[in-house]
Design a protein that fits this description.
By secondary structure, the protein is an alpha/beta fold. 41% of the residues lie in helices and 16% in strands. Bound molecules: nicotinamide-adenine-dinucleotide.
Length: 353
């Protein structure tokens, strides 16, 4: 073989080799375990993952989730409090990441029965982290909450604001964020804790929406009161003497599909070598409870029957977040305004039985 021929031979051999697969190669494992995938936010995340070419696997015990919402991938019916359940699920499906949304979420209940919350949210998390460690799952996206901050000393809140949760629910989220930092240091498990402000809205064309039992969130309560007319109970607005534009509480609402999108952006960030961090998901501005009632009237021409009640303990006047860090680090910005949040939620509640 002369030199030129030998080089041609080497070159043609190299061309038959497959290139190293890029992370987005569709033949790669794009399976993601979604704990709490039968719940309000989890079911929308599963829908969105499927839309984007991923393969969601729901892990849920249906303590508050809905069977009919699990339509976008496989289901493992299991309880995070049973280490075998979660170990077997991870072993069987071998996901590239876990999106961890399973949790108890009622602030008031967490005050009355804190151990129920520490047991489910924290012990469940330890079982999940052990299973991820045993099976070398490298990434977690965790549903944290604005509740980690406690009473704001300034607004809009950014991630530098001190975290002093004022109820056991918020404590469970804060403690988990600390666990995740330690698991990164010790085992190299990388995570993004997404501190959601108020998740809201729906995907009505997918027949997905917000249905908690009991319901404590303003938008579904407000829409039910409006759509059921006199048959519905009047909405209770807690407090009318806060230092806000109209005396009622001011909150930051994020469309559920914008939240779902943040989960995928957080995963891309980690897969691109990003470090463990916590980031707020807010819209940068808020709407008061009274303004929400006015918007329902403007958008749908319907009055919301409501009455004022005393302030609730632990309700800050204003809970609004910046999204600078989410934009800078994850490339995420909220896309859907409050009018879209309300319109999608309204449409979904019209179809709810
Ligand atoms: N809804 C909001 O506005 C909001 C705001 C901030 C943070 N979050 C967080 O987002 C996540 C999802 O909230 P959501 O509104 O969809 O609640 P949800 O109650 O609708 O969903 C929670 C899901 O987790 C499941 N689950 C609970 N404990 C489990 C366990 N031990 N094993 C297996 N499955 C279990 C439930 O069956 C349910 O399907 C929660 O972690 C919550 O703390 C929600």
């Amino acid at each position: 073989m002369n030199i030129t021929f030998r080089w041609l031979f080497v070159l043609s051999f190299c061309m038959t080799l497959k290139p190293i697969q890029s992370q987005e190669d569709p033949s790669m494992n794009l399976r993601i375990l979604v704990t709490g995938g039968a719940g309000y936010i989890g079911s929308h995340v599963c829908y969105y993952l499927k839309e984007q070419g991923f393969e969601p696997v729901t892990f849920d015990n249906f303590s508050t989730g809905h069977r009919e919402a699990v339509r976008f991938g496989s289901l493992v019916e299991g309880d995070l409090l049973n280490p075998e359940h979660i170990n077997q699920a991870i072993q069987k499906y071998n996901p590239i990441a876990v999106m961890h949304l399973a949790s108890f979420i009622q602030v008031g209940e967490s005050v009355k029965d804190p151990l129920k919350y520490y047991q489910n949210n924290n012990v469940g998390m330890i079982n999940l982290l052990n299973a991820m460690k045993n099976h070398h799952v490298p990434y977690m996206i965790f549903s944290s909450s604005a509740a980690v901050y406690g009473n704001p000393t300034y607004t809009p809140l950014d991630e530098d604001h001190p975290c002093y949760p004022i109820n056991p629910y918020g404590q469970t989220k804060w403690m988990i964020e600390q666990m995740l930092k330690d698991c990164d240091k010790a085992y190299g498990l990388k995570s993004v804790s997404l501190r959601y402000f108020n998740a809201a809205g729906a995907a009505p064309e997918q027949n997905l929406g917000e249905a908690h039992e009991p319901e404590s969130h303003l938008i579904p309560l407000m829409i039910k009161a409006a759509q059921k007319g006199d048959a519905g109970k009047p909405l209770k607005i807690f407090g009318r003497d806060y230092s806000t534009r109209d005396g009622t509480c001011l909150r930051d609402y994020i469309h559920i599909l914008d939240l779902a999108d943040a989960h995928l952006k957080a995963l891309s960030y980690l897969r691109g070598g990003g470090e463990t961090l916590s980031v707020n998901l807010g819209s940068g501005h808020g709407t008061t409870n009274f303004e929400m009632i006015q918007k329902i009237k403007e958008l749908f021409g319907v009055d919301v029957p409501f009455e004022y009640a005393d302030r609730r303990e632990g309700d800050p006047a204003v809970l609004v977040s910046t999204y600078e860090k989410a934009e800078k680090v994850l490339g995420w910005t909220p896309q859907r305004p409050i009018e879209t949040v309300l319109t999608d939620a309204w449409k979904w509640h019209q179809t709810e039985k």
